[in-house]
Amino acid sequence: MIKVVIIVNPISGGKSKEDIPALAAEVFPACDYCVDIVETHYSGHGYLLAMQAIADGADTVVAVGGDGTVNEVGRAMITDTNVKFGIVPMGSGNGLARHAEIPLESRAALELIREGYSELIDYGDVNGHIFFTTAGTGYDAEVSHRFSEMGDAFGLIKRGPITYFRAAIEMAATYVPKEYTIMTDHEVFHEKAFLITVGNAAQWGNMAYITPQASQQDGLFSVSIVKPFLYIEAPIMAVQLMSRQFDKNEHVRTIDTRHLRILCNDLGYCHVDGEPMLLDQPIDVSMHEAGLRIIVPRQRENRL
Prior knowledge:
This protein has helices at 20-27, 45-55, 67-77, 95-99, 106-115, 139-154, 161-172, 234-242; strands at residues 2-8, 33-39, 60-65, 84-89, 118-126, 129-131, 134-138, 178-183, 188-193, 195-199, 221-226, 252-257, 259-263, 270-272, 275-277, 283-295. The chain has eight helices and 16 strands. It starts with a strand and ends in a 9-residue tail after the last strand. Helix 1 (20-27) links the parallel strand 1 (2-8) and strand 2. A six-stranded antiparallel β-sheet has the order 6-5-16-13-8-9, covered by helices on one side. It has a six-stranded antiparallel β-sheet with strand order 12-11-10-7-14-15, with helices on one face. With 304 residues, it is an alpha+beta fold. The longest helix is centred in the middle third of the chain and has 16 residues, at 139-154. Helix 1 (20-27) runs parallel beside helix 5 (106-115), helix 2 (45-55) packs parallel to helix 3 and helix 6 (139-154) crosses helix 7. It has two domains: 2-116, Rossmann fold (3-Layer(aba) Sandwich), CATH 3.40.50.10330; 129-285, Tumour Suppressor Smad4 (Sandwich), CATH 2.60.200.40.
C-alpha cells in the first residue's frame, strides 16, 4: 500500500480546491493507495504537516497551492530524499511547477504523481531560508512586497497575474537602482543594479524567464544582475524576459556560481521563492546539490 499525503492550502492563488478530494479518489485507487488529505491553516503550517507526514511513513507528500505552499512543504522534504515530493500547482506564479513542466491542470498533475517518476534537484538557501526557484533583491523583491500588500488590502480574489502586473508597473516608474558589493566564487565587484536574481530555476513564474539558463541539476546558480536602463527600453526587455532571451540584453550580466554574498547600504526587501522578507546583511546564498526528490514528467522539453 502506497501512502500519499496531500497538503492543501485552501486560499492560495484565490482558486477553489474543493474538487481535490474527489479527483484524488479517482486517480489513486483505494486498493493500492492510502491517501490522506489535510489543509493548512496558517503560515508555516505546510512545513509542520509535511514533517508529520514523513514521520508517519508517507511515501509521497503532495503540495496543492502556490509557490509559498510548495516552499513550505518542500523545506520539510529536504530532510529525507527517499520521500517523493509531488506538486499540484494552483498559485499565482507556479515557478517550480512550470520549470519542471508539471501540468497546471489538477487531474493531470495528480496523474503524474501516480506515475511516480522522480529526480533529485538542487536547492539554495539565503541566510538559512530555503528556496527552490529564485531569490533576490531589488526591484522584483519590492514588487513582491507590494503584491503581498495588495492581496491583503483587496482580498485573495485579486491575487493573480493582473494584480502582480499592476504592482510591477507602479514600482517601475519610481524605483531607484542601488549600489551593491557582490562576491562570487571567482570575483568581488561593485555594481549599480536594478535587481539581482539568483536562479536555481529559469523563471520567476508565469513564464517570465529571469535566469533563462538556470538548471536545477548542475550544482550552480545562474545569477542575473540587471543594470540601470532607460524606461523606454522596458518593453523590449519584457519581450526578452518572456521569450527566454533575457540574458542576451546588454543591461543584464549573468554569472554562474555556487555561492554569492551581497552587501548594500540600503538593502530593502529580499524575496525567497517570491515571498518578500527583510534579511540581515550580509546576504549569503549557498547551493545544496541533489537535495529534493521531486516528481516530474519522464520526458520533458527542457532540462531541470
